[in-house]
């Protein structure tokens, strides 16, 4: 691989914004890629993948490069140099790379790789927490898996097409996919590509959705004609899947505290041809109260630490704080207590997170079942999906029935 000056500089600029200004990696990359219209697909993927890589390995690379936050421009170049040397990329004779101690970089890498928090590049508190919650063996495996690059998985929109037909259509757009056993609507891309540009995407034939995430809507056991509340619907990844499983029949009420996310949901629903979704912004508790005892199914895709999706969002390792986790656990329990009231007798509720921590998952369900509001519920089944077992995102889902 040959390094191109403008691409490397763009990457370093992006890193500065992410690390020093605290901006979100995905937003910064999106903005950076708009900087030069002449960049082709390869150039763009170099910037995106290299930036994500260095975000993922920030702690390890900073330690090897012997630099500390806030990072000066030369510090970021040193981190970039570590990235390049560890990948065996030949360094050009630019002043930024003069005197690079290649052997020392490799030696430090070998040394630090013996210590998990450096090898997996994670903050101390997170390493301690992961081990405390999952045990040494599972955490070591899991954090390793969560540092792998996530495959691109899409969900065929059965309102418009089957996965087999979709695969054929994408092939014509030079995108090769393959089926995933046990995930009936999923296709995985054989090679990374910008699939948002395809006509198939613009026509609403699929959504990008990880394989584990595709299990959540199915877990609710929805059927056409039901009344379903998607209580933390966000931009609607699961609502759209629910609509497809319900064959557009019945009613989905998509709630969220953020109206702008629901706006995006509406746009996506239109593209997908999902006609049975109504959005309601939770401005006050009346919105929830109005729905008490009315739903056949309630999906709580709860706000969480996002620790199960680190491979897709490595930035979260640095943004997440212990206090946020304490608050989010409290919110999760409040949501369970409050939103469970929207279910009818005999109705079912799914509590799901994209976290791998028992304290956000099974412990929350246990606490709920032992509370006053939970005494009318029974746990039908639950599923803990670890990334190290499944090869996809870490997730948790519990199915509860209102007696
Ligand atoms: C995991 S995300 C949902 C993702 C979405 N279901 C999807 O599949 O695309 C959690 C969502 O919960 C929302 N949220 C946070 N607090 C909430 C609350 N008290 N009530 C309802 N939604 C809430 C967030 O805005 C966020 O969109």
TrEMBL record:
<dbReference type="InterPro" id="IPR049560">
    <property type="entry name" value="MeTrfase_RsmB-F_NOP2_cat"/>
</dbReference>
<keyword id="KW-0694">RNA-binding</keyword>
<dbReference type="GO" id="GO:0008173">
    <property type="term" value="F:RNA methyltransferase activity"/>
</dbReference>
<dbReference type="GO" id="GO:0001510">
    <property type="term" value="P:RNA methylation"/>
</dbReference>
<dbReference type="InterPro" id="IPR054728">
    <property type="entry name" value="RsmB-like_ferredoxin"/>
</dbReference>
<dbReference type="Pfam" id="PF22458">
    <property type="entry name" value="RsmF-B_ferredox"/>
</dbReference>
<dbReference type="Pfam" id="PF01189">
    <property type="entry name" value="Methyltr_RsmB-F"/>
</dbReference>
<dbReference type="InterPro" id="IPR029063">
    <property type="entry name" value="SAM-dependent_MTases_sf"/>
</dbReference>
<feature type="domain" description="SAM-dependent MTase RsmB/NOP-type">
    <location>
        <begin position="142"/>
        <end position="403"/>
    </location>
</feature>
<keyword id="KW-0949">S-adenosyl-L-methionine</keyword>
<feature type="active site" description="Nucleophile">
    <location>
        <position position="354"/>
    </location>
</feature>
<keyword id="KW-0489">Methyltransferase</keyword>
<protein>
    <submittedName>
        <fullName>RNA methyltransferase</fullName>
    </submittedName>
</protein>
<feature type="binding site">
    <location>
        <position position="256"/>
    </location>
    <ligand>
        <name>S-adenosyl-L-methionine</name>
    </ligand>
</feature>
<keyword id="KW-0808">Transferase</keyword>
<dbReference type="InterPro" id="IPR023267">
    <property type="entry name" value="RCMT"/>
</dbReference>
<feature type="binding site">
    <location>
        <position position="301"/>
    </location>
    <ligand>
        <name>S-adenosyl-L-methionine</name>
    </ligand>
</feature>
<dbReference type="InterPro" id="IPR001678">
    <property type="entry name" value="MeTrfase_RsmB-F_NOP2_dom"/>
</dbReference>
<comment type="similarity">
    <text>Belongs to the class I-like SAM-binding methyltransferase superfamily. RsmB/NOP family.</text>
</comment>
<dbReference type="GO" id="GO:0003723">
    <property type="term" value="F:RNA binding"/>
</dbReference>
